[in-house]
Amino acid sequence: MLTFLRRRILSSAVPLLVVVLGVFFLARLTGDPANLYLPLSATQEMREAFSAQHGFDDPLLVQFGDYLAQLARLDFGESLRTAQPAAEAVLRAFPATLQLAGITLLLAAAGAVVVGSLAAYRPNSPADRIAGFLSSTAASTPDFWFAIMGVLIFAVTLDWLPTSGTVGAAAWVLPVATLLIRPFGVLVQVVRGAMVTALSEPYIKVARSKGAGERRVIFKHALRNAGAPTLTVAGDLAVGLINGAVVVETIFGWPGIGKLMIDSILQRDFAVLQAAVLLTALTIFALNLLIDICYVLIDPRVRQGALA
Amino acid sequence: MKSPLRPPVAIGPPGRRATVLAVAWAVLLTGGCTVANSGSAAGADTVQIVLPEEPPTLEPCDASLTATGRVVRSNITEPLAERVPETGELEPKLATGWKQTSPTTWKFTLRKGVTFHDGTAFTAKDAAFSIDRTLDSGIECNVDGYVFGDSEITATAVDATTVRVTSQEPDPILPLRLSFVEMVPTSTKADSRVREPVGTGPYRIDKWNQGINLRLARYDGYWGKAPDYRAALYTWRAEGSVRAAMISSGEADVAVGLAPADGAGDHAVEYPNNETSYLRIDADKPPLDDIRVRKAINYAIDKKGLVASVFAGLGRPAGQLVPDGVTGYNPDIKAWPYDMKRAKSLIAEARADGVPVETEITIIGRNGIYPKAAEAMEVVQKGLRDAGLRVEVKMLDVNAWTEYLLRPFPKDAGPTLLQAQHGNQAGDAAFTMEQIYGSKGAQSSYGTPGLDQRIQRAERAAGSERQTRFAEALAHQSEKVVRDAVLAHMKGIIALAPDVTYKPDSASGDEMHLAEIHPAG
């Protein structure tokens, strides 16, 4: 197992390095932040002083060297916009995104397992057709449209929920629902597909012939085997959610990492952008590792390969 | 190969799995509560304002940044004097009066009995310190770059209530410039920025939940009339339709920075927001170096149609960059009439004289500079094509666009028209002319010695002579230079809940005085 982990960690180091390099250099190709941060009427001397103070007048490689040296000391630099440590801004935003992503994924996965299994139990039955129709509608609904409609219907017209914000439990309903709808739709289809396959396997017949109850057949035998493809897709969806639910964060005023990243790109706030991308990349790396471990746990074929 | 008969692998005993799940849920939910409980419920004595963005800082020396200024100015901190948007006159704030004692010296008499939120008295030492801190401390104050440029200014406390301010060159509008300097106590850090300042204003900072909301509380020791609301709660939503919806659903009393499409309906209040939209004509390159082509561009744009359709009526066609109320505004300059026949004949005339009018001209646009920015440029493009020019539109994001806005300009750009918007929040044409029309102005791609001379003469003048000279410089630009195609004096929209009254003015976009918001009825 340790060898497996070590191998996975080493193979992830390269993409991580590429991300760090890419973000650093690509961000700096997009123009001089002095133009954005100084008033239009600022003098040339002021612009030069600004560049010198933030090190933007050094050659790019020198700037990159300084950045790596800072990183080694766990110093992520200072936000140009707020003059606060970049790490502070990122660590404030990330939990908000993680909470939203976590709850969304749990609800989507739990709902998808139930609906997908029911649909797969009797393929082409009315229940299956309804589930298929609803899940494809859900999977193809644009989230910004759903969010704005949600605000208009449930906040403005019916006055059941707040429009936006993070204050109070009711404020979670619309953001989670918006974020949930696509992963739920996709996962229902994946679970259904995997369950239909699993339920037609010989071992299900064997289980039934040995007198196992239907609940046991579905949840114990079939679902476990349908777990691997579901896990793969859910992992992919989780990566998308952790990357920041930009639309949801923007519309609902959710102070998360997606909005922070987009803002720091638009405002050329390099330190915040770099810190946010690094933290997100590390989290996605950890998540992928977790998914791999889950594979090992649920699928003995993978386990044998991993332990070999 | 997996045997189908092999029993499924268990991750752990069912009990332990349930515990893990329960813990995961508990972590997420308690974490959720940390976010959820960090706001505070607002009562009837709290005015709730929803902004398009969180203030990056509340540092008073950055108060010329819109996002900072509209929260800080005259709410948390105050200047010595304040400009009245309707008249353009300065009115006393923390200074009761000021006098020019020599061409380079002004004396300000300070108000007595003013205290900062920390209880200390406001004295001339604080005033001199605030001016020094804004101009000379090396902390890159936005106000310094915006208002003072390279002018050298010294402030000295003469006695407890008198400050002497000296400029190296005679400066007839020094008090106006100083109206951008917010007063802070000498205990404020001089060598670094502060995020949460102490001021003398009617409200003090109560609690800033970063990312979520900002609460101000009424300052009981305020020297002036106490404002109506005991507290103000600022929140921010980037999406305009959500800000408008917050008024409809009763979650906010005032929503700032809306567009016509945001759907504020009956709650919407329109106001002239001090901004003027225009196209900068980069007149140093053919065919734009020919004044007939520049005039044709002005004739070929249907400004009335543009305002009525694309801007949804939010604006009025304009002929100059400064609106009424700004020193230098010239009431005789009218918007260029829409006259396609004239435009076509001017282009034909230029073509006959060998001007390469078939050269492709690029409109450099900026997404989001005002609502429907791209559509507006398509309307302009259509007009110019009809007149006989070859025009393409390139829409950029703000940073790429500033490369074209500010010197040094891209060298290989070809002939360009730049979509721009100018807001003169200081109220004097000096803050427009030099940088936009001067031959060496930071935003100017073309100027003439005649216009430069007129601008410089106006900048040295004071009082009614200053008004006349700037008005004359603007007329000269409009008739003889034609360096741009001014489109419209723009209007903004805010939305108000039925339970508040507030009358927005041209300064509301930059400073929104909480004391001017009242409960309705």
UniProtKB/TrEMBL annotation, chain A:
Residue ranges of the TM segments: 12-31, 100-121, 133-157, 169-191, 270-298
Subcellular localization(s) per the UniProt record: Cell membrane
InterPro entries: BPD_transp_1_N, MetI-like, MetI-like_sf
Positions of the ABC transmembrane type-1 domain: 94-291
Signal sequence, start to end: none
Topology in the lipid bilayer: Multi-pass membrane protein
Keyword Membrane tagged: yes
Protein name in the entry: ABC transporter permease
Family named by the database record: Belongs to the binding-protein-dependent transport system permease family.
One Pfam family cited in the UniProt record for this chain: BPD_transp_1_N
Membrane in keyword set: yes
Keyword list, A-Z: Cell membrane, Membrane, Transmembrane, Transmembrane helix, Transport
UniProtKB/TrEMBL annotation, chain B:
Domain of life, per lineage: Bacteria
Record bears the keyword Signal: yes
Pfam families registered for this protein in UniProt: SBP_bac_5
UniProt keywords, alphabetically: Signal, Transport
Record's keyword annotation contains Transferase: no
Domain Solute-binding protein family: 89-439
InterPro entries to which the protein is assigned, alphabetical: SBP_5, SBP_5_dom
SUPFAM superfamilies: Periplasmic binding protein-like II
Family label: Belongs to the bacterial solute-binding protein 5 family.
Protein name per its UniProtKB record: Peptide ABC transporter substrate-binding protein
